[in-house]
Specification:
Layout: E1 4-7, H1 11-24, E2 27-33, H2 40-44, E3 47-52, H3 63-73, E4 77-79, H4 89-97, E5 101-102, H5 107-114, H6 116-125, H7 141-151, E6 155-159, E7 169-171, H8 174-192, E8 197-201, E9 207-215, E10 221-233, E11 236-242, H9 249-265, E12 270-278, E13 284-290, H10 297-304, H11 308-316, E14 333-340, E15 342-343, E16 349-350, E17 353-354, E18 357-359, E19 366-370, E20 377-378, E21 385-393, H12 396-407, E22 411-413, H13 419-427, H14 429-433, H15 440-446
Parallel strand pairs: 1-2, 1-4, 2-3, 4-5
Antiparallel strand pairs: 6-7, 6-8, 9-10, 9-12, 10-11, 11-14, 12-13, 14-21, 15-16, 17-20, 18-22, 19-21
Helix pairs in contact: 4-5, 7-8, 12-13
The chain binds adenosine-5'-diphosphate.
The site of adenosine-5'-diphosphate (ADP) has 17 residues, from strand 12 and strand 13.
Length: 448
C-alpha cells in the first residue's frame, strides 16, 4: 500500500481525500495556490506545498509545479479529485512517467472515453443503447440535414470534446440546423480546440441517471447502483439522490448491467460513472463516461456503505476490490444538496467573501462534506461550492424531511448560499413525486 499520496486539488474534495488517507494510515500532501493559503485542506494535510498564484492556470492546472511538489514530498501516488486535471490524459501520463501512480484509470482509457464520439462508438460496440444519432462526426451540412431528418427533429448537436454543456445546441428544424451547427463548431473550437460535432435525437423531458462503477486491475468490475441527478440548472447538477426515484426494478438491473458492460469493454480500472438519459418510457440511453470520482459520490456511499475514495486508493495500489457484486445492496435513500456561495435571488450570481459566522448542520442521518469554517474567505477564483449536505434515511420522504431540517441549520453569515433555494425545490410537488425531469428547475424556478 502507498505510504504517501499527493492531492492535486482543493476544497471539499481535497479534505475528503485527506480524511480517507488518514484512516488508511497514509500520509497526505496538499498543494495550494496563494489564494488558498488559509484553506482547510492545507491545515488538515500532513504536508502542504504552494504551487503558484490564485488563477487555476497558474496553480491547480500547472502540471510541472504539481510534479515538482510530488518529487519534493516523495509521494507514491497522486489523487486528482474532480475538475482541474482530473480527466486530463496528458497529466495522467506525466504522473506515471514521473514514477507516481495516478489514482484513476489508465491514460489510454481516459483518452478514449474523453472523446464523446469515440465513447459513443464504444457503447455501441458493447451493445449499450445510445440515443439515435449520426454515425460519427458531421463535416458536411448537406449530409447533416439528411441524418437529422432520419433521426427526427428536434436534434441535439454535441461537441465530441464537450463538457459542462459547452458546444451543445438544439436545432428544431432544417432551417435552423446549419446555423446551429456552425455555432456549436465555433464554440467547441474556442473552448476545447476541437470543433468536431455529432448529432443525437433531442430527448424531451429526460431524467439524468448515472451508474457508479469501480473496477480493479484484476478484471473485477462492480456497479454500486445509480444516482438521479435531474435537478439541474444550465446542465449543472444541484441536487443528487440515490437510488433513482420511480425507476422500475428491472430497469435498474438493466441500466447497471449496461454500465458494467461498457466499463469492461473500455478496459477500465478505478472509479468511473456511466451517464444515461432516461425517457418517459423508462428507456435509457448512454450519454458519456466520467473517468474520475464525482462530486455526488457520497449519496452512493451512504446507500451502499462503500467508501469510494478508499476503494480508489486500494485499486490504484494494485489490490483487488474489497467486495464483490453480490455484497452490494441498497439501504435506504440518500440526497445531496450542493451548497454554493451564490445568490439565487440574483440569478445565482457567485457571492464570494468572508464567512463571518458559520455553523455546519449535523444530527441523525446528516453528513456535511465541506472545507468552510467561521472566518474563512471564499476565494473568487474557483468553483462556488462551499460544501455538500448529504442525508441518509430509510425512505425518500424521510430523507426530504431530514434535508429540510438540516438546510435550515446552515449558517454562513457574510455570504449568501443556495440553501434556501434547495428548500424550495424539496417542497415542490414535482420533486416530491420524484417525477421531475432535467428541465424542472428552469421551468419552475429560474425562468432561464
Ligand atoms: P456535458 O459533458 O457537456 O455536461 P452531457 O453529454 O453530459 O454533456 O450532457 C449534459 C446534459 O444535457 C445531460 O445531463 C442531459 O440533461 C442533457 N442531454 C444530453 N444529451 C441529451 C439528449 N440527446 N437529449 C436531451 N438532453 C440531453
Amino acid at each position: 500500500m502507498f505510504q504517501k499520496v499527493l492531492i492535486a486539488n482543493r476544497g471539499e474534495i481535497a479534505v475528503r481525500i485527506i480524511r480517507a488517507c488518514r484512516e488508511m494510515g497514509i500520509q497526505s500532501v496538499a498543494v495550494y495556490s496563494t489564494a488558498d493559503a488559509d484553506s482547510m485542506h492545507v491545515e488538515l494535510a500532513d504536508e502542504a506545498y504552494c504551487i503558484g498564484g490564485p488563477k487555476s492556470a497558474d496553480s491547480y492546472l500547472k502540471i510541472d509545479q504539481i510534479i515538482a511538489a510530488a518529487e519534493v514530498a516523495n509521494v507514491d501516488a497522486i489523487h486528482p479529485g474532480y475538475g482541474f486535471l482530473a480527466e486530463n490524459a496528458h497529466f495522467n501520463e506525466v504522473c506515471r512517467e514521473s514514477g507516481f501512480e495516478f489514482i484513476g484509470p489508465s491514460a489510454s482509457a481516459m483518452d478514449k472515453l474523453g472523446d464523446k464520439n469515440t465513447a459513443r462508438s464504444m457503447a455501441i460496440a458493447s451493445k449499450v443503447p445510445v440515443v439515435p444519432g449520426s454515425d460519427g462526426l458531421i463535416d458536411d451540412d448537406q449530409a447533416a440535414i439528411g441524418i437529422a431528418q432520419e433521426i427526427g427533429f428536434p436534434v441535439l448537436i454535441k461537441a465530441t470534446a464537450g463538457g459542462g454543456g459547452k458546444g451543445m445546441r438544439v436545432a428544431e428544424d432544417v432551417d435552423s440546423l446549419a446555423n446551429a451547427l456552425s455555432q456549436a463548431r465555433k464554440e467547441a473550437q474556442a473552448a476545447f480546440g476541437n470543433g468536431g460535432v455529432y448529432l443525437e435525437r433531442y430527448v424531451t423531458s429526460p431524467r439524468h441517471v448515472e451508474v457508479q462503477v469501480i473496477a480493479d486491475t484484476h478484471g473485477n468490475v462492480c456497479h454500486l447502483f445509480e444516482r438521479d441527478c435531474s435537478v439541474q440548472r444550465r446542465h449543472q447538477k444541484l441536487i443528487e439522490e440515490a437510488p433513482s426515484p420511480n425507476l422500475p426494478a428491472e430497469k435498474r438491473a438493466a441500466i447497471c448491467e449496461a454500465a458494467v458492460r461498457m466499463i469492461r469493454g473500455a478496459d477500465y480500472s478505478n472509479a468511473g460513472t456511466v451517464e444515461f438519459i432516461v425517457d418517459q418510457n423508462d428507456d435509457f440511453f448512454f450519454i458519456e463516461v466520467n473517468a474520475r470520482i464525482q462530486v455526488e459520490h457520497p449519496v452512493t456511499e451512504m446507500i451502499t456503505g462503500v467508501d469510494l475514495i478508499k476503494e480508489q486508493i486500494r485499486v490504484a495500489a494494485g489490490e483487488k476490490l474489497s467486495f464483490c457484486q453480490d455484497d452490494v445492496t441498497i439501504t435506504g435513500h440518500a440526497i445531496e444538496c450542493r451548497i454554493n456561495a451564490e445568490n439565487p435571488d440574483k440569478n445565482f450570481m457567485p457571492n464570494p467573501g468572508k464567512i463571518q459566522r458559520f455553523y455546519a448542520p449535523g444530527g441523525f442521518g446528516v453528513r456535511f462534506d465541506s472545507h468552510a469554517y467561521g472566518g474563512y474567505t471564499v476565494p473568487q477564483h474557483y468553483d462556488s461550492m462551499i460544501g455538500k449536505l448529504i442525508v441518509h434515511r430509510p425512505t425518500r420522504d424521510e430523507a426530504i424531511a431530514t434535508m429540510r431540517r438540516a438546510l435550515a441549520e446552515v449558517i454562513t453569515d457574510g455570504i449568501s448560499t443556495t440553501a434556501k433555494f434547495h428548500d424550495a425545490v424539496l417542497q415542490h410537488p414535482e420533486f416530491v413525486s420524484g417525477k421531475h425531469d432535467t428541465k424542472f428547475v428552469e421551468r419552475e424556478f429560474t425562468g432561464n
